[in-house]
Amino acid sequence: LGRHGSRAVIGKMFGDADREVVLRNTLGWKARRDANPFVETRYVEYRVALRPAALAERLLESRTQIAAEAALDLDLLEDDSLAVDRERRRRLFRDSRREEETETACRTAMPPFDDSRRGDGAAGRASPLRAATYDLLKQLVTQRAVEALVAERQTLRSDDVDVLAAVWDHHKPHFVGSRLPTAATPADDLLIAFRSITPRFVGDAIVDPLAILDDILDRRKRLAKDWQASLASVPEEHLRWRKWHLSNIFAKSLGTSDHHSS
Question: For residues 262 and 241, what is the distance between their CA atoms, to the nearest angstrom?
Fold first, then answer.
């Protein structure tokens, strides 16, 4: 059931009993109290009922929608790869347009996710921050593809490993942290970098950066397909969670409980 941290969180939420907590907050305008030390600080208390299992159900519902949308949106990586290829062809045939125009064409725009486009195909609302989720997926799958290629080439001692590793070392820090969703993604910048490098000789072999770029795009495509297959299994995973939760409720009603999930 689940993987890594998600298994512990969801399992604990389903296993915890309902309870009531008291929240305490200050009453009145804080700035006025700070300006006048003679104003007595007053508090108001709220009693809130926590139902962890119900929250877990809502979490699974959101998780299902985001997984479905992510599986669908990963197909957009193919459009991104085609944009990179079109830019490469323009440079190969010496397009007369200005350099900044051709580079802008390679920087893929964020897809328009509106309320009518939902991952499960229904005419419902898209999940919040869906475009940002796609941006994150794009960065993660590109990072995983490059790191896998670097590891393979280092093992094989390939002639192009130094070029690949140097470009990745320069761009890797940009894959960590937040940024404005309208800016070019770190993944786009990484791919653009390879088409700006000229071929070079390493010993008796010639290293073609465009061939490295093709390998990255191909590996990224294959990884995206694997991730889509994993995301497609999310509803089945959630069904197992719900069965485990119901079996625990039944066991507790008989005076026993099963805290183990499989």
Answer: 9
Query: For residues 149 and 194, is the Cβ–Cβ distance under 8 A?
Result: no
| Tokens of residue 108, six digits | 């893929």
Average pLDDT, the chain: 77
What pLDDT score does 101 carry?
46
CA 225/CA 222 separation, integer angstroms:
5
What are the φ and ψ backbone dihedral angles of 114, each rounded to 5 degrees? -110, 180
Yes or no: say if 140 and 222 are a contact pair by the CB < 8 Å rule.
no
Closest CA to 184 of 96, 108, 102: 108
Q: Which residues contact 62 (CB under 8 A, 6 or more apart)?
A: 127
Name the 3-class secondary structure at 233.
Answer: coil
Plot region of 4 (φ>0 → left; ψ -120 to 50 → alpha; else → beta): left
Give every CB contact of residue 166 below 8 A, 6+ residues apart in sequence. none
Q: What's the alpha-carbon Rg for the chain, to the nearest Å?
A: 26
Distance from CA of residue 144 to its chain's centroid? 12
Q: What is the spatial distance between Cα 215 and Cα 219, in angstroms, rounded to a whole number?
A: 6
The closest of 167, 157, 173, 172 to 192, measured between CA atoms, is 167
Residue 123: count other Cβ atoms within 10 Å of its Cβ.
8
Lowest-pLDDT range of 19-28, 116-125, 130-139, 145-154: 116-125
DSSP-derived pairing of the beta strands 200-202 and 42-50:
unpaired
What 3-state DSSP class applies to 119?
coil
In this structure, are strands 200-202 and 19-27 parallel, antiparallel, or unpaired?
unpaired
pTM for the full model? Answer: 0.70
